[in-house]
Each structure stands twice: as C-alpha cells, then as structure tokens.
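Subject: design request, 258 residues
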C-alpha cells in the first residue's frame, strides 16, 4: 500500500463521456498514486465501469484528459488539441495497463498456458521459453500450477478469473484495472480471487477496482470513491467513508449494501 507522497500513476481531469443523450461521466477528476489501491463503488449505471474503460482507452473520452504514468492515454497533443493515436500506438500504450473484466474472456480453444503466453509472445515479442517460464510463475502465484494444460471450459469460474489475472500480469503492467472481478462468481469462489488481489496490493501494484466487496475495500483499499450519476460524490479513506459517510447519497447506498 502506498503513502500519500508517492508519484501519480493516474491523473484524470474533467473527463466527460456520453452515449447518445446519456451522459455517463460528467466531468470526473481523480488521482491514483503509485502503489495505491483505489476502490470504486456506487449503484449500477453510476459511471464506474465507464471510467475504468476510459482509463484503458477501450472507450474514448468526449472531453478532459487521462494520463497514466505521465503519458496521455489514447491521444497525443498537437498544440492545444488532443489527436487520437493510431490503433497500433494506442495498443502499445495500453499494454502497460492490465484489465480484468467481470467475464473472463479467455480463449476457449487455448490451454491455460497458451492463454497466458499469447500476448507476451504476439504483442511484446517475448521468446516463447521466457513467456512460458513467466506464465508458470504466475500460475503458481494464483494457485493454479496444476491447470496449465486445462482448457477454460474445464475450470470453475473462480479458476478462470485467476487465469485472467495471471494473463494480465504476464504483460508486466504498471497499473491493474478490475471491473467487478467477482460479480459473476459463486460466493464460495470469491475468496480465492480476492486473495490474489490482496497479494498484488501487498506487493505494491497500483490498482483501480470497481467492486461490491465492501470488506475488501475496507481492508485493502487506500481510497474509497463513491460514484453516482456520472460524478464522484464522495472519496476518502475506506473506513471513514464506510463508517461515517458525509453525503446522503453515500449513506443511502451504503445502507443497502452493508
């Protein structure tokens, strides 16, 4: 976990995003410091997942800017104008940002080991033996050393999600984004996934986590951000926000989830 004096890893200023007439993000400002775990909570449709997708440039922003480790995400400056990067250049920058989704998005026709080595070999041009050795290290880390030859359909949801985390880590990211990584899992499978995430936090990985797991947010998060209606309503230390929320909207939300 980080101190407040760590350098910024993510700097979000004035970010707006609309889908047709629906404004999903209404001028969001947020800083995430290196080694910090920021947990985003809020009702469905509050803009949490959209914000995550904009950080990774899976969705483009309509206004504002996002910097990851000092670099604009998805754009470059030309004078006072932001120009969208080519798909190849955007993908290169995105390689430094790992993302884990609600659904696991593993390639069903590939083994666990192949799923993890595919991008390091294909995108980063790592030698196959080096990528394979790293994949095995990561499988050990997520507790799945015996599953490298298995196919996704042979795994539980929790196992698939741990493979998805290993796959993201194989790219050597400086930032990890988690979009409700346990929401599609049976309750008894949630703990193993959260344990892996807790280990990442302890190792100093910078993480932005959209979650409904309030215990995880309280124990592991450095900062808790409550979003509603496309804006950040309240943010602070998790225990402070959970036990003594300032805003009525936060109080109402927490009364339903705690």
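Subject: RE: design request

Done. Sequence follows.
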């Amino acid at each position: 976990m980080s101190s407040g004096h760590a350098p910024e890893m993510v700097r979000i200023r004035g970010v707006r995003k609309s889908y047709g007439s629906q404004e999903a993000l209404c001028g969001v400002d947020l800083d995430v410091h290196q080694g910090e775990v920021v947990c985003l909570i809020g009702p469905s449709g509050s803009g949490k997942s959209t914000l995550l997708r904009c950080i990774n440039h899976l969705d483009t922003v309509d206004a504002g800017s996002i910097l990851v480790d000092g670099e604009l995400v998805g754009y470059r400056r030309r004078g006072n104008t932001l120009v969208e990067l080519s798909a190849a250049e955007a993908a290169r920058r995105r390689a430094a940002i790992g993302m884990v989704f609600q659904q696991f998005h593993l390639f069903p026709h590939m083994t666990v080991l192949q799923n993890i080595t595919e991008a390091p070999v294909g995108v980063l041009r790592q030698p196959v033996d080096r990528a394979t050795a790293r994949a095995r290290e990561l499988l050990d880390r997520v507790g799945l050393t015996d599953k490298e030859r298995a196919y996704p359909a042979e795994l539980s949801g929790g196992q698939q999600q741990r493979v998805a985390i290993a796959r993201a880590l194989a790219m050597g990211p400086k930032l990890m984004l988690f979009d409700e990584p346990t929401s599609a899992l049976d309750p008894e499978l949630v703990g193993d996934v959260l344990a892996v995430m807790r280990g990442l936090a302890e190792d100093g990985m910078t993480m932005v986590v959209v979650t409904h797991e309030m215990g995880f947010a309280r124990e592991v998060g450095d900062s808790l951000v409550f979003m509603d209606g496309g804006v950040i309503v309240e943010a602070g230390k998790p225990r402070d926000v959970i036990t003594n929320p300032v805003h009525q909207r936060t109080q109402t939300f927490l009364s339903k989830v705690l």
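The first strand starts at residue 8 and ends at 19.
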